[in-house]
Amino acid sequence: MTILRVEPQTTPLRGTVTVPGDKSISHRAVMLAGLASGTSHIRRWLPAGDTLATLAAMQALGVTVAIHQPEPHAWDLTITGQGLDGLQAPAGALDCRNAGTCMRLLAGILAGQSFPSTLDGSEQLRRRPMRRIIAPLRQMGANIEAADDKAPLHIRPGRLHGFRYEMPVASAQVKSALLLAGLYAAGPTHVYQPGPARDHTERLLAALGVDLHVDGGWITLTPPATRTLAPVQLTVPADPSSAAFLQVAATIVPHSQVTITNVGLNETRTGLLDLLLAMGADLAVSSRRETGGEPAGDLTGRFAELHATDAAGEVVVRAIDEFPVWAVAASQAAGTSTLRDAAELRVKEVDRISVLAGELRRLGVVLAEQADGFTVVGPGRVQGGQVDSHGDHRLGMALAVAGLVAAAPVYIHHADCIADSFPGFVSTMQALGAQMAWVA
Ligand code: S3P
Fold first, then answer.
1. How much is the average pLDDT of 29-42?
2. Most buried in the list 25, 146, 163, 294, measured by CB within 10 Å?
3. What angle is formed at CA 359 by the lines to CA 406 and CA 346, rounded to 5 degrees?
4. CB 76 within 8 A of CB 128
5. Domains of the chain, residue spans
C-alpha cells in the first residue's frame, strides 16, 4: 500500500491517543543496551523502519534481543549486553536503510572496534552527507574510507584518542557519534555544541554510569576505567516529533480536541510547541512526569485561529524535524510566517525545503523558498490533488495533515515511508475520526 487518500475533514478530530515511542531514544537505547554489561529492559520501544535497522545491526554485531509485542507499535525488548568490548564482527555490511541516526551513531561505535565493518543504506541514505562525522572521527584516530564522503562507510580498526572538537553546526547525530567513539578513546573527549541539539545520548550515558559533564556548550566524556556500562532500564516516552502531526491537525480542524498521552517534553525537542503557542494555538500540558530519564506529559490540543510567526535562531534546532508540518500550520495562520537559519533541512531525508515547497504549492499553498528556509502566506484554502512524499516520512504525514483542511481529496503517493518513524499513523488518525485510508 503506497497511496494514502485523505478526505476533507467535515467533523472535528476528537479523542485521547498514544503515539509510538521516541525514535531518537529508541535508536540510542538499543545501541547502549548492546554495549552494557548485563540485561537491559526497554519498554514501549519504537518498531519503525529506521529503528528496526538499528536493532538488526546490533543483532548482527552479536547482541541477543528478546522481543515481546504487547502492542503492535510498542515493543518491550530484553537485551543481553555484550559489554563495551564484546561486540563481534558482522557477517556482512550493516544495512542502515533510510536511517541517518543509525549510520552516524553506529559509525562512532564501530570506529572503536577491533574488527572491520561496513555501514550501508538505501539510495536515499547514500546521498546524505557523512563528512560531518567522518572528519572529526578521523581526528580521533578512526580509520574510515568513504568515496565522496558518502555511504557506504568502510571502517577499519583504529586506535582512538580523546580530543577537543567544536561542531560547526549543532547536530545531535554528530555529537553522539563522537561521544560514543569517546567510550573507546584514550583520554577524555570534549565536544562543543553551538546550540541546544537533543541531549538523549548524554542523558542515557550518564544513567549508565558514564562520567559525563556539561559546562556551557562543552560536553566532556571520560571513558569508563572499569570498561563497564550499567544495563538500560527505561520506558521510552512517546515521540514529540510524531505527536507534532496530531497537534497541528487538532489545531487546524475546527472544533477538534485531541489528547496525546505521555509525550516526551525534553526542552531540546519542544520547539514546535513554542512556535504554535506563539501563533495562538490552544495547547496545554498536564500530568507532567518523568519517563525514561526524560520529562514527559499529556498534551491536549484544541482548534484555534492562528496568526503568523517567524522561526529563527535557537528554536530551529529544537524544532528541526517539525518544519514540514509547521508549514501546514502556517498555511492556515493569518499573515506571513518565515523560517530562517534552517539550511540543515536541505540535507535531511530529502531536501526538505525544495521538496516541501514543491508539494505544498501543488495543493495551492502560497510558499516561497529561500536558501535557509521559506515564507508561507496564510490563511489559504488548501486544494485537493495528487502529491508525493518523495520517500520522506515527515513530508508524507505533513501532506496528510494538509489534506484534512483541503477542499477536495488529497492523494499522497509513496506514503508507505510514513512507517519509517510512525507505524500506525493512519489508524491513529482514523481513531480520532480522520477520513483517511490506503487506496493502493
Ligand atoms: C536526530 C538528530 C537530528 C534530527 C534527526 C534525529 C538524532 O539530526 O533531525 O531526525 O536522533 O540524533 P541532526 O543531528 O543531523 O541535526
1. 98
2. 25
3. 135
4. no
5. 3-20+237-438, 23-235
Active-site residue numbers?
A: 321
Instruction: Please tell me if the CB atom of residue 193 comes closer than 6 angstroms to any atom of ligand 1.
Output: no
pLDDT tens profile 185-244: 999 999 999 999 999 999 999 999 999 999 999 999 999 999 999 999 999 999 999 999
Give residue 124 CA to ligand 1 midpoint distance, Å: 16
Report the CATH fold assignment for 3-20+237-438. UDP-n-acetylglucosamine1-carboxyvinyl-transferase; Chain (3.65.10)
24 Cβ closer than 6 Å to some ligand 1 atom:
yes
Q: Do domains 3-20+237-438 and 23-235 have the same CATH topology?
A: yes
Mutate to test the pocket of ligand 1, among 320, 341, 394 (most ligand atoms within 8 A of CB): 320
Is ligand 1 within 6 A of the CB of residue 320? Answer: yes
Ligand 1 lined by 171 (C-beta under 6 Å): yes
Which atom of ligand 1 is closest in space to residue 170's alpha carbon?
Answer: 16
Between vectors from CA 115 to CA 111 and to CA 120, what angle results, nearest 5°? Answer: 60
Kindly report the three-state secondary structure assignment for every residue of 375-415.
EEEECCCECCEEEECCCCHHHHHHHHHHHHCECCCEEEECH
Question: Is residue 430 left, alpha or beta, with left meaning phi > 0 and alpha meaning psi from -120 to 50?
Answer: alpha
- For ligand 1, atom 9, name the residue with the nearest CA: 321
Q: Which CATH number fits domain 23-235: 3.30.70.260, 3.40.390.10, 3.65.10.10, 3.30.70.20?
A: 3.65.10.10
Taking CA atoms only, the protein residue closest to ligand 1 atom 16 is 171
Cα(354) to ligand 1 centroid in Å equals 19
pTM of the model: 0.98
415 CB within 6 A, ligand 1: no
173 lines ligand 1 (CB under 6 A): yes
Rg over alpha carbons for the chain, rounded to the nearest Å, is 21
Per DSSP, the three-state class of 295 is strand
63-113 tens-digit pLDDT: 999 999 999 999 999 999 999 999 999 999 999 999 999 999 999 999 999
